[in-house]
């Protein structure tokens, strides 16, 4: 297994800049998700965040967006969090002249376009901004320094695809597939195990970095119990990408071996899996864990403009890793095919709108 | 006076990336300065920093490089500061198993190339890294959150050149010059006043951001008392640039008005001026303030390779603002002329090697 057979994590970052295929211009899906979560986050802060405890040891509230990409969604989400905390402050305190200061850390992989992120920071922001490069699968902050972690549509990303998928002598060899849709149990298990390891590291790091009483709010793609992954929206999105790549194999434009050695570094867990991982970690109280609608549902995606936008969204998110593995010469054709398949796909057969997990944890 | 007549502060950042004219490849002069300051910083930490006080309220030591640019100098400087603090920790404490954690904030203007900075962070660093975009002429951090400010060759940069230099009806109109060398007193005073305002804002902001007992170490170009600015190395560097631009005016390649409306946003203070500003602020004890050698002196700069390197250094630092004002078409010719003038310049007539101010302040 050569080094070139795996995708390097740094290529998992979204497209930077502000060009046609940039994340900045193609992140409205995540924007829907931010909107859908807005009220829920406000509620969680109002009901569960105790500012008297947090402010007993610090005059500053430190907030992190884990996997922030380049905006504008992260700025909207942060604004909502700060406004919610300020409302809670007013509800808990009488003296509003001594409001806390806010410091916001925008985190994403080192390859994220922080230059674009920084240059688009809201000019009238009421917080001190900082960028933190590095994987959330590891420590990012000093011990006991963070009061609020936020993460939107990032936690389904693995630090890498499971290595055994590349081993021709293993029952987990993922021949002819780029993910675990319609794959044997061994492949699904390899993904699930890799995911669990990553989340264990994530929770362990965040537990160390948070102050007692601090809050973590996350939402990310999830698999509704009892529904096969291929019949969910996320599953269908990836299956159509796989099918587009296999078409290119048939036409000799890429090799079979190239597809065999490419595996998406993503896993969509169920509520039960996540629940078990948080409980196993033991450092957090689970204040909320529920399946929600991401704000965009299957029926909407059948409209042509929404469909096109979703294709652009997938491109903004995955282009870098696809180019690294398959080369840039096939990328336009790949996404043209993908767009066509997407248009023809009967989205209405997708049974569930609740394909996102909304999680509120409180550090014990 | 049109908006186009002034240079926007965001263009004061060094050249990004890692190309021929990048700061990353042309910052050895600053590197000499970092080396020259290394021992002095170690001494200041050993003698004056009280870790028992700092660690009584925090388990983390927070360090900032103000005006860090893109490396590698900032990484060397930070490494030296952390190692010095660790030595002091061992000298002050018996229990070395509970060493503090370090969080380092790399600060520069929003237009600084943070992507290059982040991708070149030392992989084995023993600290948590963050980037903070924004001008040091203003607040950057929450109140009472920083233990150590460091700044190398940045504090001579103004937030903007004085506006009255552009006013044709003012005695401060800076016709035919780009700086205050050989200028009437009114021009020098306009610069000095602008500088004083900026340093007042800087000291006020840092005083708020620092914890009591925290340390600020800065070194930056300074003007030795009694020596005309034009006879210092920095003065000569700028005078040769002005002379190169005036040559282009004579040849009709740029207009007189373009030179009249361009003024370098830099001021080189004397020790006495800085002393007065710190005392006026009142929040700091002055632990050390002395003129030092920047590690490169006039005789060295007469060697051809050093001379070429200095020209590249000036280009890396000033190209963006020169292009914004004069256009990119003249930039190669400008620096070719500058290089030639620099080569012919009798550096040995420069009287002083001590053209840098080394300052150690302690927050009261």
Automatic annotation (TrEMBL), chains A, B:
Select a single GO molecular function from the record's annotations and give it. Answer: methyltransferase activity
Q: Which Gene3D superfamilies match?
A: Methyltransferase, alpha-helical capping domain, Vaccinia Virus protein VP39
Matching SUPFAM superfamilies: S-adenosyl-L-methionine-dependent methyltransferases
The gene for this chain is SABATH20
Q: Which organism is it from?
A: Populus trichocarpa
Recorded protein name is SABATH methyltransferase 20
- GO annotation (BP), single: methylation
Residue ranges annotated as transmembrane are: none
Q: Record keywords: Transferase included?
A: yes
